[in-house]
Specification:
By secondary structure, the chain is an alpha+beta fold. The chain has three helices and five strands, in the order E-H-E-H-E-E-E-H. A hairpin with a 2-residue loop joins strand 3 and strand 4.
């Protein structure tokens, strides 16, 4: 299950120097124009491999075990590529994410 936060999170949030300790600092080599390019940010809860028959048998009360353990951090993906881990939080009446780490966010690869 992916939660699409594209409308709620701009890539500038990931580049903001005011983000909590452990987040990457602003990359001065990233051109201003590129900072506004929209990306799709998703949180991956887990996955399950099932047969087509099992898929056809799914219904409103079905429970499908995932490969993730309850309580472990979710994977943050940008355009499908994993960049870090996060926890789901409630922000007002919406869900949000609390970034744990951004080990896979390497902006040097796109600016080199």
């Amino acid at each position: 299950m992916d939660m699409n936060l594209n409308d709620q999170l701009d890539v500038d949030v990931l580049l903001d120097e005011n983000v909590e300790v452990g987040a990457p600092a602003r990359n001065p080599r990233l051109p201003q124009m590129m900072r506004r390019i929209p990306v799709t940010l998703t949180l991956e809860v887990g996955s399950a491999r099932i047969s087509l028959q099992d898929l056809m048998d799914l219904g409103p009360s079905s429970v499908l075990p995932l490969d993730a353990v309850a309580g472990e951090p979710l994977v943050i993906k940008v355009n499908g590529a994993p960049i870090g881990r996060a926890e789901v939080v409630v922000s007002g009446e919406q869900y949000g994410l609390k970034v744990i780490d951004l080990d896979g966010l390497n902006l040097d690869l796109i600016t080199a």
